[in-house]
Amino acid sequence: MIVLGIESSCDETAAALVRDGRDVLSSVILSQVDLHRPYGGVVPEIASRQHSEMLPGVIDRARRDAGLEWGQVDAVAVTYGPGLASSLLVGLSAAKALAMRLARPLIAINHLQAHVYSPFLSSEAPPFESVLPLMALVVSGGHTCLVRSESATRFTLLGETIDDAAGEAFDKGANLLGLGYPGGPVVDRVAKGGNAAAVAFPRGRVRRPRDAGAGLNPDLCFSYSGVKTALLYHLRDQPLGPDDPRLADVVASYQEAIIDQLIDRCERVMTVGGVLAVGGGVSLNSRLRARLQELAARRGVRLLLAKPSHCADNAAMIAGLAGAGGGQRGAAAAAVDVVPALAMTTN
Ligand code: KG4
Ligand code: ZN
User: Which of 162, 169, 200, 301 is the most exposed place for a label (fewest CB within 10 A)?
Assistant: First the structure.
């Protein structure tokens, strides 16, 4: 089955064609990051306008890159949440119209579940069904959560951030350090030259059960507002001058505090012989990838990292999860509307 995937939940306009949930025939991602950079974050009005303008061309480019005719597409899959309402609406409207025009089924996909699926978009990865149940970490600009998946339609939330997402911690920290937007890539690069033990930034913890989301174990939840505030005070008390040689040490220490929390929570849910899947924009981080590999080897766990091209927002993961049997189909999909605050557990 060949699925066309469409993704427009935030600031990437993307379309992809994926065969049988694994074989990525084409994947086009148009990032809007340059348009939002002057504002230091995503501006919803700019994002949706850009999606409306670019999506038709991005979809056709994906079809041509795959060398397919429209008649060879078996289904149309689209992100319906979570994300920016007006941006999601552009993708959902396009997908509904295309599905109707092609007389093919529409499959409505939860973006967070698709991030969980993203490491399986490769012939080197085992088939998704063969490693269930699995644990997954989704780390992006908007989300940080730990999940257990029993099937392509069953995802149980184990923990999530109670304040900022890990990607936000990278972005806000980089902003305080004057490193520009988005912060993740530049922090990753600058940290390579620094000593991660130079500054003792706090490792956030969620102590009280009532601070964690309903029914969640606080030990599996994340908190990133404290480390960001600690950086703010550190820079106030020990300002960095231009070209300050201490910059790399501060950046490496800050990054390590963010990553330590992710590693700690993963370690708590790992079981020997189990599988840990990791996706989302922050999973591009080279130090996080190395620390996860070290942890998995030490604990006898099979680690499945998304390929770099499938970490940040993309449409291959949307088409992939649809091809693996995920999402809403039939009458439910035809009636679906965008859900900006869609929970990880809802199909
Ligand atoms: O998955 P994504 O494209 O967007 C959301 O769905 O939210 O992730 C974007 C986030 C940004 O916060 C960005 O700073 C972060 O991923 N990011 C990184 C790296 N590359 C991107 N964070 C740490 N290290 C990186 N190399
Ligand atoms: Zn995402």
Answer: 200
Spell out the alpha helix ranges (H) of the chain: 33-36, 44-66, 85-102, 111-117, 166-176, 183-191, 225-237, 247-269, 286-299, 316-323, 330-334
Ligand (nearest to CA of 7) = 2
Local structure of residue 245 (DSSP, 8 states): T
Residue-wise pLDDT for 40-97, tens only, equals 889 999 999 999 999 999 999 999 999 999 999 999 999 999 999 999 999 999 999 9
- Ligand 1 near 323 CB (within 6 A): no
Tell me the CB-side half-sphere exposure of residue 338, using CA atoms within 13 A: 20
Q: CB of 11 closer than 6 A to ligand 1? A: no
What single DSSP character describes residue 161? B
User: How much distance in Å is there from the Cα of 216 to the middle of ligand 1?
Assistant: 25
- The verdict on the CB of residue 284 being under 6 Å from ligand 1 is yes
The rounded distance, in Å, linking the Cα atoms of 329 and 306 is 26
The answer to whether the CB of 281 is under 6 A from ligand 1 is yes
